[in-house]
Amino acid sequence: MKSCNDFSLSILVPVFNEEESIGPFIAALDNALSSLRHQLDIVFVNDGSSDNTRKVIEGLITNDPRVTLVNLARNFGKEAAMTAGLDHVKGDACVIMDVDLQDPPELILEFVKEWRTGEWDTIYGVREDRSKDTWMKRVSAGGFYRVFNWLASETTLPENAGDFRLIDRVVIDAMRQLPERNRFMKGLLAWGAFRSKGITFTRPERHAGETKFNYWKLWNFAVDGLLSFTAWPLRIWGFVGCVTSLLAFLFMLKIVIGASFFDIQTPGYASTISVVLFLGGIQLISLGIIGGYISRMYREMKGRPIYLVEGVYGQYDKQNLVEGYSVANAKHVEKVSPVHA
Ligand code: UDP
Ligand code: MG
Q: Which of the ligands is closest to the CA of residue 99?
């Protein structure tokens, strides 16, 4: 473990159309983390916002050398934005958090305290009570964690944990080595099986604006997560096929023997159409699932970058940070190094 305050901490914040939230977020962060002020830097990843988010962050940069803006070329989604952020943070550890104040900045002090013991590489927030979520969201989230942990046996997702967490440089560097395009970050972080600890907190309501995740997006997100971490949905069809064939064979025997030896004539239409429709449905589901894996393989094979950066803006460098926060360093918004991934 390093000596008392000899560390730097990056705050990574993906933002998508959040112009109203950024000011209150910085104020709350400064308020809660005044004791860490000289060790902090804040990396906003602007995920293709169409409102004034970019301008608001550039305004911050003019007065605050701790702020960096990684401006993505378009909206790539939160998982890609977090990946972009991890490629740009410079701290010894990084806290990933939302800008809408649903992840309370005060908790970061506890994260840091645990991290500084040297026992943990990841300290994540666990939502204590989800009563503010809708019934549907609670049930679907609970179901998802159960199914995921049951099927993806080598990765255990902690229940009720979001992306809000502190991760050590070891974890940041490990995540950066993962080449996959389907970025289900919670799963990737859990897959690494780092030494992790959960800290419970009550999640407040969104400070301003609206959630960017509707049910359709959440459903796709859940499917992405599942298919990225287990091949069971693919493998199950072999078993389903065997069982159905066996049942079909027994049924056929019954009908043939009945008709040949006992003169039992089974009326056909209703039973035939039910079996045909049932099997048709099963086949379409299995094809759909195979399609789900193939489309993800297709995406991986194309090897396109996970995100594209339009530019990186700010005046932060580690030297300033070690010497302490200095407004004198803040001149104008300058383009430090456009990185094209
Ligand atoms: N976000 C993003 N890209 C997106 C959607 C969301 O960077 O395509 C950011 C958003 O600005 C916020 C965080 O991800 O800082 C969490 O989003 P939100 O609050 O809508 O999610 P929820 O809390 O409802 O799960
Ligand atoms: Mg939110």
A: 1
